[in-house]
Give the backbone structure.
Amino acid sequence: RKEVEQDPGPFNVPEGATVAFNCTYSNSASQSFFWYRQDCRKEPKLLMSVYSSGNEDGRFTAQLNRASQYISLLIRDSKLSDSATYLCVVNMGILTGGGNKLTFGTGTQLKVEL
Amino acid sequence: EPEVTQTPSHQVTQMGQEVILRCVPISNHLYFYWYRQILGQKVEFLVSFYNNEISEKSEIFDDQFSVERPDGSNFTLKIRSTKLEDSAMYFCASRVSGVVMNTEAFFGQGTRLTVV
């Protein structure tokens, strides 16, 4: 099983649509969770951290389900500028013996169209 | 806003040659990383560096690779004898902490390495 698994997409949605991405991770000892955004041939940039209680930042909502080892990202009222690849990223954490490296999923490609 | 800077942005080298990729992490950050991304594939961890030594490395990071922080600001990745399969985008990243949960990693713009 892959350490971090995502549906690669692409997800083609019209402007204004709501779209949801899912991610699963294999190691139950994982401690920190993130969604990063990557534009074509650019560096990953943090979109938001993901907390157990769920968190929201404007049009973006992230959820974490530790029992199912599942992370989600919801984008509401999608804009053309949201077109990018969304990377699910997991950090096991030093205290659990996993070091401090980030483990990336393959990413889910989103295309928002007029 | 502070940022991680990488040079060069693009490096073309012949197979078997040595290359050095350079990075200047954010000044108050303590944890440094190199990742690579082969075109069309996921971002892969290479190595992490803390307190002037390697703290973790992946299977990719074999004897052909080395890292150094020569002067307290630069953080370099050296590939001794490049292979065609080393062609990729190499990202440097830094974090203020590798222990505190949910600490953001900031990535540089990347160096595109092309081995011919």
User: Anything to note?
Assistant: Residues 58 and 112 of chain A are 18 Å apart (CA to CA). Chain A has a mean pLDDT of 92. Chain A has no helices and eleven strands.
